Amino acid sequence: MEKLLAINKLSVDFTLRESTLRAVNKVSLSLDRGERLGIVGESGAGKSVLGFSIINLISKPGRIAEGSVIFQGEEISAYSYEQMRRVRGDRISMIFQDPMMTLNPVLTIGEQMRESLKAHMEVSTAQANEICLEKLRKVYIPSPEKRLEQYPHEFSGGMRQRIIIAISLLTNPAMIIADEPTTALDVTIQAEIMELLLELCETEQMGLILITHDLAVVSQVTQRIAVMYAGTIVELGRTEDIITHPQHPYTIGLLGALPQRAGSSGRLNQIPGVMPGLARIPRGCPFKNRCSLAAEICATKPHLRKSSSGSEAACHMVGTEQSTAA
Amino acid sequence: MINFLRRLRSSDFSYYFFRDPIALVSFAVLLVLVVAAFSAPLIAPHNPYDPTTIDIMDSELPPAWAAEGSRNFLLGTDDMGRGMFSTMLYGMRISIIIGLGAVLLQAMIGIVVGLLSGYIKRLDSILMRIADVQLSFSTYMIAIFIGATFQMVFGVANYEKIAAPLLILIIGLAEWPQYARTVRASVLAERQKEYIEAARVIGLSKVRIMWRHILPNTLSPVLVISTVQVANAIMSEAALSFLGLGMPQNKPSLGSLITSGFEYIFSGSWWITIFPGILLVTLILVINLLGDWVRDYLNPKLYKG
Amino acid sequence: MLVRIRNLVKEFDITGGWLDQFRFSGGRIEREKTIVRAVNGVSIDIPEGRTVSVVGESGCGKSTLARTVMRLYPPEAGEVYYREQRIDNLSSKELKPFRTRMQMVFQDPYASLNPRMTLGKILREPVHFHQPKLAKGEVRDRVAAVMEQVGIDPDWQSRYPHELSGGQRQRISIARALTVEPEFIVADEPIAALDVSIQAQILNLMMDLQEEHKLTYLFISHDLSVVEHISNQVAVMYLGCLCELATAEELFSGPRHPYTQALLSAIPRLGKRAGHERLSGDVPSPISLPPGCVFHTRCRHARERCRREIPVLSEVEGGSRVACHGVEEGRI
């Protein structure tokens, strides 16, 4: 299958007063056409920064320090602002956590949709309306003609996120980056939105990068998962492999911490300590200070390599006896 | 203390402060002015309050560099023969004292009213309406009214003795609503937070929650408006003195100095008005610049007084 | 029963200032208020040493229920009993002895600690307040002991909350509740703002403390998988009303109320792509509650009776208590 997106050794630095912090450290990822990839990690793991850096939306003091992003054969990480503007919201769309941040409260939904459409396409207002209605129907907004004339505050949280998805579909993008799209929503609505995203990706053959902290959500929607910790990918592989046979001690810990995995009324598996801040990431393996398997070799940085389960893990201990014991 | 200084040096505050030339220069100028004002008895060559040292023959001397200037009086003398330099230093001291005093009074009234109306819903409407009524009278109207009454009741001679505290009272009473509104706004924001609920769950009394928990968290906006308010109070005092309702001529503030020179400006004695004027503008300017910097640093979304 | 909640009602007046309450209609000036019914006649029993969870989606009134039980809000109607003593009508002075027996842990670790107070001050304050005669050394010892219990180094007393991570702050928040040695703790979404691995740490800590101190929890959460793990009994709320009250095993193995069923089917499960039951429409506004069963506007089993008559909680076989006409009639 042809590669839709290839990220090669991408690093993002934030330059602060006296120091430079590396939020994303040499991340390499790829996405096939129509493939759904989940990026999972805790807050501060660098998953959102990675998402933003794909479409070159890193604002100062951050910048892409090295590496490249190749989308549909073009190196978009080298694009100028103007060139990038034509890619963003056209071939790549982005969905954020809080729909109210993306929608302008003083414009009707119709005005906003037409505006974003006209920014990328030469269409008449009548044609634009037609496209908007079609997309609203796709995300199951009831009576879209009436809804087009309403303001964002007249919609519920779930409806707003549907509208955001409809807007992101306007230009028939090849890929959607969704950053915690359902974190602000209730479970019942979350389930609906996820189902909708999944359905749209399948019918439209769209690539999806789903950035979230929720392993359960990711496991239902995506085909592959990248687990991020302190700016690096610690495990990458097919969703089933990672869920059923996690290899990296962090992934094992993360899955074990889920109440669904624990026996009833027993204690949860907890990872000791907290993820280090960007300024305090240890040399070598970033996870070594919290890892029960840490050994001397962990002072050197592990690289992703194939494990027995089929996924790639960045851990020296994977494949050794200790790790299977864990 | 050393620990505190060390922490201050490594803090964001000093980092941003030392990288902002405007803040640095403003602070330096303000420091020089304030130190000069409060050490006036030590550094001023003459004592303008001591009639025995004043010679009417020295009146209206131009600055030292002018042809008729005397080396005794660097910036010339006023119509009574007082050295402008010394009189301005003493005058600035009075202006700053009145400014600080008035702001202290405003802050005390404003913080109490703001806390009460922000935290106790029943009091909110009534206290805020009082504040609105207060704001709808201009400072000058109140000052003219009170000043004139006092001058009548106590006589002009006695009025001179109580002029400074009276001005503090007038300016303090006139502008407390700025504080009350600012404090109330941040109390309304703070009281929503869970640490207030936690304090209530412990069972703490309202007064204790207000003083120990809410008040300390509302002080940064108070600090910001205080700088602006000091400048405003000094301006108000100058304006009142200019109208003849402020400090008397024998204990002049910067404002009354400007007035007294105003009569002579057309007879060529420009220095009596211009020098105190420049000093006043400089003082106000550096305070406001510093205030702006503090506001930008704390960056709260607050009501700009 | 340690705590009994009976028909508790909490309303909020959202009209604003009294000037806004006057409306001009039909040539007359009328005073009208806009009332939100946040908690609508809820009854729950909380047995000693157990964990009772309240779940529901945002706006269902679960946090308001917790705060009303803690008397952060005075209830409009209903009763709250603590060890069979009625506490909902006590004055704040009469309530003071109960403040050492019931405590609360909050959701937002960034807002629940006073940013201007050191950890030591935050933890000493409740002790000083309730036992002013306690010697300084004793207070210090108790604070140190509590910090140790929640896994925070007692030497950190001079630190400020902003120096701590979210999980550590939540530990301090729990420690503050523990300093007065309570029996009953209301936890309002204590782990919602934390990362998964930290959530596990805090949940484990809460379970350890429960065993050690024989604590009783009223646990408020929107996260059903957490609730399933930690609670003995679960109450499901929708629009201020209680839909279902059952033991955790009963509820998660066989939910009876249609809303509970929809809620459970929506939990994302690892790896399993189970078709969830879709609810039609949105949650109605709590300003004008639908007549009859509050859920009827979204329920696919709704009949004429559901639109007229408010269902009451009644026991079904298995021991669950469900407020649904359909369940009562045996058609669900």
Strand order of the largest sheet of chain C: 8-9-10-5-11-12-14-13
Global mean pLDDT of chain C: 90
Distance between the termini of chain B: 34 Å
Instruction: Note the run of SSEs of chain B as H and E.
Output: HHHHHHHHHHHH
The largest sheet of chain B is: none
List the helices and strands and how they pair.
The complex is a heterotrimer of chains A (326), B (305) and C (332).
Chain A: E1 3-15, E2 20-32, E3 36-40, H1 47-54, E4 62-71, E5 74-75, H2 81-87, E6 92-95, H3 99-102, H4 109-118, H5 125-138, H6 144-147, H7 157-169, E7 175-179, H8 187-204, E8 207-212, H9 215-221, E9 224-229, E10 232-238, H10 239-244, H11 249-256, E11 305-306, E12 312-313, H12 321-325
Helix pairs in contact in A: 4-5, 5-7, 7-8
Chain B: H1 2-10, H2 12-18, H3 21-38, H4 40-43, H5 84-119, H6 121-136, H7 139-191, H8 194-202, H9 206-217, H10 219-242, H11 254-262, H12 271-298
Helix pairs in contact in B: 3-5, 3-12, 5-6, 5-7, 5-9, 5-10, 5-11, 6-7, 7-10, 8-9, 10-11, 10-12, 11-12
Chain C: E1 3-13, E2 22-25, E3 28-31, E4 35-46, E5 51-55, H1 62-69, E6 77-82, E7 85-86, H2 92-99, E8 102-105, H3 119-130, H4 136-149, H5 166-178, E9 184-188, H6 196-213, E10 216-221, H7 224-230, E11 233-238, E12 241-247, H8 248-253, H9 258-265, H10 304-308, E13 314-315, E14 321-322, H11 325-329
Parallel strand pairs in C: 5-10, 5-11, 8-9, 9-10
Antiparallel strand pairs in C: 1-4, 1-6, 2-3, 6-7, 11-12, 12-14, 13-14
Helix pairs in contact in C: 3-5, 4-5, 5-6
